[in-house]
Amino acid sequence: MRILSSLAFALMILAAPSAHADDPTTTLRIEVKTLKDKPIDRAAVTVDFVEGRSVAKLGKKNRRHWETRSNQEGVVKLPPIPQGKVRIMVHARGYQTYGEVYDLNEEEKTIEIKMNPPQSQYSAHQ
């Protein structure tokens, strides 16, 4: 009897809707390009939560940040994530590192990131 009641309790917990199930989410698309609008593939893209929900549920895992790379078209697509502020960092060989905070407050968001070429070196010692 005790096993059945424990099993019934566990099933109730699993079947109950999550407290965050109705939180608004954003499907995020990031496009990484050169200043001349050419896609940059294999750019390292990191998305971290800054404000709002600090954790996103992805399957059975709780995620505080994503690390991924852009595809051949320079695109990164993330599954729906909780709305709020996120920091997007992009690293690509031959370009300056990019970082910016964005406020996600809509169902779908496309962010176009234009990567700058590296600046020339400067030395105070000659």
- Uncertain spans: 1-20
Q: In the CATH classification, which architecture applies?
A: Sandwich
Multimerization status: single chain
| Strand fraction | over 45%
**Count of individual beta strands:** 10
Give the CATH H-level superfamily.
Carboxypeptidase-like, regulatory domain
Residue share in helices? 10-25%
Distance between the termini: 85 Å
- H/E element string? HEEEEEEEEEE
Shape designation: elongated
Number of domains: 1
* CATH topology annotation: Immunoglobulin-like
What is the top-level CATH class?
A: Mainly Beta
Structural class: mainly beta
Kindly provide the radius of gyration, computed on alpha-carbon positions and rounded to a whole number of angstroms: 20 Å
Supply the number of helical segments. Answer: 1
Q: Tags for this entry?
A:
Immunoglobulin-like, mainly beta, four-stranded mixed sheet, 126 residues, four-stranded antiparallel sheet, 1 helix, elongated, 11% helix, disordered N terminus, single chain
Characterize the structure shown.
With 126 residues, the chain is mainly β. The chain has a single domain, classed as Sandwich (Immunoglobulin-like). Helices cover 11% and strands 46% of the residues. The chain contains 1 helix and 10 strands. The strands form 3 sheets. Strands 1, 6, 7 and 10 form a 4-stranded mixed β-sheet that branches. Strands 5-2-8-9 form a 4-stranded antiparallel β-sheet, with no helix packed on it. The protein has a two-stranded antiparallel sheet with strand order 3-4. The longest helix is centred in the first third of the chain and has 14 residues. The chain is elongated, with a radius of gyration of 20 Å. The N terminus is likely disordered.
